[in-house]
Amino acid sequence: MKKITFILLITFTLPFSTFAQQQNNKRDLRQDSLLQIDIHKLADSTQADLYLERAKMLNTTHADSSIAFCIKALSIAKKGLLNPSLSRADSINYIRLMAQAHFSMGMIDQIHSRLDSAEKKYLRAVSLFKETDSRQELSNLYNYLSRIYQWNGDQQLFYDYTKKASQIQRQEKDSIGLAMSSIAFGAYFERTGNVDSCLSNYEKALRILRLVSSDQELSYGLNEYGYVLQRMGLYEKAVVILLEALDINKKRGDEHFQTTKTLSAIGTVFSELGEYEKAETYLNEAVQLSREMGNPSVEAGILSKLGIIYSKREEHQKSLAYHLKAQELIQNTDVPPSLLAIALHNIGKQYQHLGETQKAILNFEQALELGRKYSLPKDQAVFLNSLADAHLQINQLQSAKEYALEAFSVGSIKNYSEVKMKAASILHQFYYQNGDYKNALEYITIHFRIKDSLQNVNSKAALLKMESSYILDQKQQQISSLENENKARNLEMIHQKALAEQRRQDQMLIALAIILLMCIILFFINRDRLQRKNKLLHLHNEQIKLEKEREKSMYQLELARTKHDLYANVTHEFRTPITLIQAPVKKLMAHAPDNVQETYQSILRNTNHLLQMVDEMLDLARLETTDTKLHYSITNLNLLIAETKADFAPLFQHKSIRFNANISHSDLSISTDRNRLKMVLNNLLKNAWHHCPEGGDINITVTKQDSELLLSVINQQESEMDSSDVEKLFERHYRGNTKNYDGNGLGLAISKEIVNLLGGNITINLNEPNKTEFSIRLPLKPVRAFPNLDSATIITDKATPMCPMEGDLKPRVLVVEDNLEMQRLLRDLLDTRFEIILARDGEEAGHLAVEKQPALILSDLMMPKVDGIELVEFVKKNVDTSHIPVILLTAKSDKESRMLGLKHDADDYISKPFDPDELIARMDNLLRQRSHLHEAFKNNPFASLQNTSYTQLDRSFLKKAGQIIEKNYQDGNYTVHQFCTDLALNRSSVHKKLIALTNQSASQFIQNIRLTKAADQLLHTDASIDGIIYDNGFNSRQAFYKAFKVKFGQTPKEFREQKVTS
């Protein structure tokens, strides 16, 4: 009887689950207008989707219609795939539709127990879903496919496909899907007898479902777990689990399906516990709900359970009535044939109990026929055992044997232990009655072996049953404890209620007092809060104000920097054309007649004046930036003023102005920025010269007062200055009413900015008529003992003739200039003295420097692509060009630009406009230095290796070359090829490098070192000359004598004798 219940529970799982879908579909059919859509007006893929939706709605109620819709969808998808211009996305969509159609038709076959057909459709859907990478649908399909194998008894495939589903669900982080797979694993381990793994998987599934708060799936999981516990005989724990499921169903408002399922399971558990009245109560309630739902298949399943209860109570006639009613409901309903087969089997069992064996056999045969037809292996095995038992009962032994052997075979193949054990018992009886004791013994042994293994499983179940009993006892004790606590609490509440009435009046008074006090406290709290809020608002406003001021300052600073950059670029652009004007003019002046000299002088004066104005604009822009740096040094004011006086002497003589300087100390030195202070003096004296009449006086006085220095410039005025002009004198571009003044009005503004930077102030006094006094006050900084930095620098305009070059070849000079006019000018200036190579930018120049190996590079600083600084870096860091001197030629005259070039190893730096003679003199000087290095290396190669005139890269090259020769000079077979190999350079590169640095080829370089070593041995040792020859790598006495005489002007013997005599 327990075996029948087990079969019923497994078989009814599918109708219960599909019925939920059926109810939802009915609701959808009532509420959704999907079926009213004219599908033929839609796109093909959309039509197919809608056909599949309709198929899902009808798959449990109208199977034929559902299959028809699936076939339509499948036809549309196949037709769509034939389109040759189909995109990849559309192709995948049509494959997905085909997969879903096969999936839906497989579900219909599974519902109606056509398991082989369902398996084929599922496997086809699997292959299609893999093409679309539909992982979620694929995992669902694996779960459905695993159930096919579960019901077919193929436990390994059941496990494998459940595992595949769980792997996808884990990757997709599908918690609910993982829980469902854990439930399937639990079912698998139940079938294989692994009780611990079975229960742990169910517990895991319930933990997940409780965490994700999924009530519907949790109710399903609790029901499944309850069934398992009931089948294991853990009835008390099963009741606890199923009651929890019932509680969840009621909270969810599920009045029918899940509640019916749970009530049916609880009734089954009570039936197993022998509490038949409780079981009837729950099952009758479930029957009532199933009738309200209008689902006869569910009602039939519950009626079968009631029939089993009456069979247990030996009320077989009543049991038969319930089973016959169940059969009637099943036959009139489109449900899986397996249910009808089980109903027929149950009826047969009751006829067998009632002694009507022939009727029992008839029902068993009908059940077996359905089992064979619809491939229900386990059900077939049970039916075969029942037929064998019935035939044995009426002594039809041969039929009993045939049925029992077939049942035993199915049980062995599918590993159905209980079926196999029952068949072995029947076969034992058959062989025993026929006197075949050997086979009888064999089958009774098999029977008891299986029984023992099942008892081991039941032992584990018994332990778990004890555990669940303990848990139930604990819960019962907790309930009793809670009841006692509630009673005590009720008595305490009555007592407290009496006391509360007495204290009520007092509490009201206290409450009023507290309320009044709270109102006062709240008043002060709100007042303080308001004050704090106002204070915070004030601070916030101040912060906003400061932020705006900071933004304004940053904007002004950025504006000043932009202006500085603009002026710097303007300066650069002005200086290049001015150079193009001045250089040809100076060249023409050298050969021009006297009558045009004045014209050329005028051109030069005006271009110089233009440069001066541009420089003043740049200085003013630079002063406006807050990051202007002052360069303090010890400045002797006596020397500074004397130098300034000498600068202005020609101007003062032109207007017969008397210039007087009065300094309070004969040797007055201060710490200041000398260049900027001189700029201030120049601007003040220039302003005084412009406004002083002919034959007037200009006086400078310098006095030291405590911690201040007072410097005054006093000059006569041609006309009295208006007092309204005084405040505007330091404004930019202001020139008063003097119309014949040719300045730009920036000098005094620049002077004021500089004085402010130095921490002082400048003022104007008009105390005497027609006299103006500019007074400067500067703070005195501490003076440390520094060397005199004001020593005069003498500059000559004479160009030193260039050193003579070997042969008649002119030195090769690479000129790099992006301005074509400047490029032509430089070529015209230098063409008579040098071989000129031209390049438009630093990138082209780099290639030409490596290829042409010029003696010198003359490069502009600002160029496109690669500028002058980058060119210097390339030249000085390249072993092929690091020896080439570089002169930077630029329109930027500021000190920072000059220092930037020199820091990157530029050999010289000349500002535009330049003096052609000065440029040529500097080029000659660099080339002469290179010639001196050649001569020094020729005379003493070892001492020259440490010469600091070489760049670091060149010194490293020469040092490495010297070390290699030092190591191998005694080897007469050491060749130039081996030398180049040791240097890791090709022969051409070594030759060019050595020619540039030493004016010697590689072979001459080796020979020079060998000769120097030989000369040293001649002077400091008594070795024979022949020995010295071969010790220093010479293989020929004649070659050694010839080379030695060329280098030293004497034979080796004469060289040694001269040393002895000296």
TrEMBL record:
- Record keywords: Nucleotide-binding included? no
TM annotation in the entry: 508-525
The record's section on Gene3D superfamilies has:
1.10.287.130, 3.40.50.2300, Histidine kinase-like ATPase, C-terminal domain (3.30.565.10), Homeodomain-like (1.10.10.60), Tetratricopeptide repeat domain (1.25.40.10)
Molecular-function GO terms, alphabetical: DNA-binding transcription factor activity; phosphorelay sensor kinase activity; sequence-specific DNA binding
> Does the record's keyword annotation contain Protease?
no
Q: Where are the TPR repeats?
A: 260-293, 341-374
Q: Which Pfam families match?
A: HATPase_c (PF02518), HisKA (PF00512), HTH_18 (PF12833), Response_reg (PF00072), TPR_12 (PF13424)
The Enzyme Commission number assigned here is: 2.7.13.3
Specify the signal sequence span: 1-20
Alphabetical UniProt keywords: Membrane, Phosphoprotein, Signal, TPR repeat, Transcription, Transcription regulation, Transmembrane, Transmembrane helix
Its UniProt entry gives the catalysed reaction(s) as: ATP + protein L-histidine = ADP + protein N-phospho-L-histidine
Q: Which residues carry this modification: 4-aspartylphosphate?
A: 860
The Histidine kinase domain extends over 569-782
Describe the location of the HTH araC/xylS-type domain by residue ranges. 959-1058
Every copy of the Response regulatory domain together lies at 812-927
> What's the protein here called?
histidine kinase
Could you tell me which species this protein originates from? Answer: Phaeocystidibacter marisrubri
Organism ancestry:
Bacteria, Pseudomonadati, Bacteroidota, Flavobacteriia, Flavobacteriales
